[in-house]
Input
Amino acid sequence: MTSPSAPLFAADAPALGGSAARGPTAARPRLTINLDALIANYRTLQRAAPTAHTGAAVKADGYGLGAVPIAQALAAAGCRHFFVANADEGVALRSARAVPDDAAIHILDGLMPGEEACYSAHALTPVLNTPDQVRRWAEARSTWRAAGPSTLHIDTGMNRLGLTAADLAAVLGAPDTLIAAQPTLIMSHLACAATPEHPLNARQAAQFQNAAARVRSVTPAARLSLANSAGVFMGEAYAFDLTRPGVALYGGRPFDERADPRAPTLTPVVTLEAPILQVRTIAAGESVGYGATHTAAAPAQIATVALGYADGFLRAAGAGGYGVLAGRNAPIVGRISMDLITVDVTAHGEAARPGALVAFLGAEAALDDQADAAGTISYEFLTRLGPRCARRYIGGAA
Ligand SMILES: *Cc1c(COP(=O)(O)O)cnc(C)c1O
Output
């Protein structure tokens, strides 16, 4: 018992981040990122498009999993083309020396005015999305000797980024500027690869072929890239010279349709586990959690787990999401709250006890199941996994 004179806050309590805080404290969720699984998926993608080099989309901090360790592991496996969203993400990879100096880091958002010196200093490859960007990179290359080659992005139907048909005509109308910008890669992006039967896919591939041939009549050495993860599994017509998978590297299914016969077998990369804090028995008719949205039809055992939407486990996954305890599913019941999830462990007996770990992502709890339950996609689920989870990397060359 605390004596009445004891201070409310002990002066000698270990400071956060001090020696006592090394390693996760007992109540934190744990995120384990398996770099060997990442490499296994990289090899699967390589085998699916053997005539192309397999690049990697590592934007958004490597889909939330840590761009530096992810890129390091992929570089060790032979990957030499990395795609990020903005220059800051590229600088972070270069500063950490995550990839070899000769590996390309392509910046998908495009070359914004004033960024030329940064791209040059950090050996970043701008993705040129407009005629103005082509012109500015051509100029930058005449100013800075370190300014390297570029990637030319042709829009073939996404209508988001990249040269429109009119832009392409304008760029081809100034061939000296195009040559000066030194595009060594020509890319486009598929809008509907997640649904391979969609007629837009074949139209985009044909339009890309055609536009790329026109660019190559000016810069014949330029290589071609079209496929994201799904595109890698859509056959030779989509492979070209370089693929740019993201989500499949991280274990997310590339196609909307689960049963798609082209779907590869991927290895789960992320395991998310959280400890049970308390277990209680509730009577038939009692409810669980905010809004009393779940009412027990029969007496039930409810475990409260230290994981919530603040950790990135999306609140919407409450309806249909599940944990796995001792090899058995434990359905999420009631609303997911900021720090806590309640699961039904009536079937789990002695395994349901404080401190026992419940898995919410991993070999038994599929990323795509939880994303489906949340009405979203694995991409969003991964990129939301938050800093409160204690992170650990296993496998890889290191
Ligand atoms: C994100 C992205 C990719 C990777 O897409 P996945 O569907 O995750 O494989 C490839 N290319 C571009 C242009 C992207 O923005």
